[in-house]
Known about the structure:
The protein has eight helices and 25 strands. Helix content is about 20%, strand content about 30%. Strand 4 and strand 5 form a beta hairpin. Strands 1, 2, 3, 4, 5, 6 and 17 form a seven-stranded mixed beta sheet that branches. By secondary structure, the protein is of the alpha/beta class. The chain has helices at about 10-25, 60-75, 120-125, 140-150, 165-175, 195-200, 260-265, 300-320; strands at about 1-10, 30, 80, 85-90, 95-100, 100-115, 115-120, 135, 155-160, 180-185, 205-210, 210-215, 225-230, 240-245, 250, 255, 290, 335-340, 345, 350, 355-365, 365-375, 380-390, 395-400, 410-420. The chain is globular, with a radius of gyration of 22 Å.
Amino acid sequence: MKVDVVIIGGGPAGLAAALSCHKHGIRDIIILERDSHLGGILQQCIHNGFGLHWFGEELTGPEYAQRFIDQVEKAQIPYLLNTMVVDMDEDKTVYAINPKHGPIKIQAKTVILAMGCRERTRGALMIPGGRPAGVYTAGMAQRLINIEGYMPGREVVILGSGDIGLIMARRLTWEGANVKMVCEIMPYSTGLIRNIRQCLEDYGIPIRFKHTVIKIHGRERLEGVTVAQVDDARRPVPGTEEYVSCDTLLLSVGLIPENELSQKANLQLDPVTGGPVVDEYRQTSVPGVFACGNVLHVHDLVDYVSEEAEIAGYGVWRYLNGLASQLTRHVDMRAKIETGYGIRYVVPQRISGEEDIELFFRSDNIYDEGMVELTDGQKVLASKRFLRIVPGQMERFKIKKQVLSGIKPGGRLLIRWRSLA
C-alpha cells in the first residue's frame, strides 16, 4: 500500500492532524489505531473541562473526541482499528498488523506520529514492599471505574499530584471512597491549579508536599503504606515516617511519551521532553516525519494537543508541496533554541523563522512576576511578561518572524526567565 500520509494513533492528536491534512487538500490519508475505537484516552475521561479553548464550551472527554470522530467520518478519512504498528523505517515504510488483514506494509510519503504517552508505574519508582493487589496507576483506576464499572478500593492514598491523580481523587470520593491524602514529592503540585481547587480543596482532601511513599505493606491485598517527608534532595527524612492504613494506592507520578517507533526510525529525541526534536512545523529530524500531541511532549490540555496537531497537518502540506525544501535537515535551520534559567524545556527546539512561530514551554519551578525572554546570547529579541509560571502548566510565547531575520543559519537562541520581583 502506498499513501501520502500515515497517521499513527487515532487519539485526539491523530484525529486533529488528519482533519488538518484534509483541510489543506490532502486526501490520501490513513489513520492506524491499535485500540478498538477512535478517541484514545479521552473515552475514559468522563469529567468535564475539555474544549474550552477549541470549541468555546465545556465538554466531557467522550464528547470532545466524538466531535473529531464525526468530522473524520464526514470527511471520509479512512482508518484501521485494532491495528498495531510494530516498526517504522527511516524511509517512512510503516509495518503494522491487525486481525482482519494480517501483516500490513505501507510506504508513505509522510508520517505523523501521534502515539500519545503512558503512565510511569511502581516499577519505575522502585518502592520497597510486597506486591499486593490494590496498587494501580491513576489511569488504570480511571478505566476500571469509568469503562469497566469496577471500584478499585475504598481507603485510598494517592502518590503524585499529576492531573489524572487529582481528578481520580474527586472521582473516587464521588463513588464513596475515602481518599485519605495526596502525597507529592515536590514542594509544588505538578497538576493544574484548577484541579487542586476543584478536585482536592472542594472535597477537603489534604495534599502533603515534600512527602512520598517509602514502603508498601500487605501480602495478598494492600493493607497500608508508610509515607515520609523528604529533604531538598528528595531523600526521606528519618523520624518523619507515618503508617497510613489503606487498601488502594494510586500512582500519578508522570507520563512518558511512547517513542519506541521514533527510536527505530532514528529520530533525534529530546532528553527532557522524551519526545522528538522538531521544528515549528512539528517536523522531526527525519524529513517527512512529523510528531504532535503527547508523543512530542506531555500537554495539560487536550485543546492544545488539537492545536498542535493542526500545525503538524499544515507542515505535512508544506512538505508534500515542496515548500519545506529548506527545512529538510535540522542542521540547515536558522536557529536551535536552548533553555536558560527557569525554563525546563521548549518546543519547538529548531526553527526556520520563515513564519511567525509560537514556543511552548514549562518552567522548572514556581516563579512570580517576571519576563520570559528570547535572546541571541547578547540582546533580547522578544519578551513576554508573566505574573506567575508554574511547572504544572504549559505556557506559550509568540515570536514574530521579523525579530529572527538577523539570525544566520546554525545560530543559537536562548529562552530564559528574568525576575522583576
